[in-house]
Amino acid sequence: MKPILLIFIFVSTTFANQYSVVISKKTNVTSLSVQQIRDIFLQKRHSIGDQRVIPLNLVGQDASRIAFETDVLGMGRDRLNTYWVKQHFQGIAPPITQPSHESIKAFVQNVEGSIGYIPSSMVDNSIKVIYEF
Amino acid sequence: MPLKLPFSSLILFLLSTYVHAYELGRGGQINDHINVGGYFSTEFESNQQNDSFTLDDVAVMAYGDINPMISYLAEFEAVGFYHKNVSDGSDGGSQKFHIERLYGDLWMSDDFNIRFGKQIAPIGYWNMEPINVLRDTTSSPLYSKLLFPKFLTGIDINGYVPQSEGLRYHLFAQNNRDLDEEYINIPNTHFYGLAIEKEFSMEWSGGGSIGEYITLTNQRTRFLQTNVKYDDTTWQLMAEALVASNEHNDREDKASLSGYVQAMYHYTPEHAVVGRIEHYNDHYSDYKDTILTLGYSYRPLYPISLKSEYQWHSQNDENRALFSFSVLF
What we know:
The complex is a heterodimer of chains A (133) and B (329). By secondary structure, chain A is of the alpha/beta class. Chain A has a single domain (23-132), classed as D-Maltodextrin-Binding Protein, domain 2, CATH 3.40.190.10. Chain A has helices spanning 2-15, 34-41, 63-73, 77-89, 101-110, and strands spanning 19-24, 47-48, 51-52, 54-58, 96-98, 114-119, 127-132. Chain B is mainly beta. Chain B contains two helices and 20 strands. A 16-stranded antiparallel β-barrel of chain B has the order 3-4-5-7-8-9-10-11-12-13-14-16-17-18-19-20.
């Protein structure tokens, strides 16, 4: 029995989604597609239905940000840099950044329409998960 | 509406004093409502008549959100800031700053946004990224310089087509003269059009536009334009074409086709080779040319661009070599 339990724990921790895209519980949004999240974080779209959204990035090169950019945005660092340089000329700035996962969570809890990504282990019933990666 | 140099110097001084969170190529932030940046480019040209050096563009820009619904962008640029003819030693230039863009955006929803003021005409790819540092070659195809006004001083209603996936529209109109007629390729009094653009995937996109404009000399031009692009970061292929017909007084020219196809290969993220073939045909000006361009692009960082190219022209002995250095800051 013990080996089976250990295998189960290993498999569930290895293959579980590590990060969650979260939004305020006050919004009506229940889930978003990768394309929708991508458009929001690339500042192409600014709303979900009637809800104005505020994307939040983690500052720096944390593993969660790299995973988000690679798995959700589908863009490597070079391509993303090129994209934001071009957007700067068009008058579009990247999403605002927060210094930590804790501050992203607090922002999402308090500001309706804000959307960010945090480790799934930090998720509780004060925020709503709309996508996992 | 030129601005005097001391004013622009004052702007540069203020920017250097108050900007924070600065990042090369992405500008800096003065506060939550003002982001600033700018760019410059230098160019060296060698043709069969002479060799010349030009500090071509010097520009400053500011943009930001006034509130969640209203944003703005202002850009002032001096073109031909300094020019030196290396062959005969003469020099000159203009330090007048012109209004390149000055507009506001009223965001109602992702499907309905209103842009008003002087803005880049939303036609094709090349016209939307007109500055040296963002381009892949120092020169621009004649298609993008001579066949339609680069700017619109009017209104552009734009957004995503409802219930569509990645399909955007622009419905634009101008019924007045340009905000700064010294600084537009085709001064005009009327300019109307509809443009659409579609992202098919991360790599593929395409679009097209249809429109009409009337120049200050009362030439009426109608055009139909299309564009397609593939970009997987290693290879970039793009093509644009435009059919135009002109009417002036009682004379009506038959439609003419112009366009280009360009391929670029990045063999490292910094280094790329680029080739372009373009055909230009304008019955009104009676000018026709086919141009082959081969170039090399080096970007130590994306906002810093060093480029060289050679152009072969089918007419008028206009073969030339171009080198440029440009920075977006």
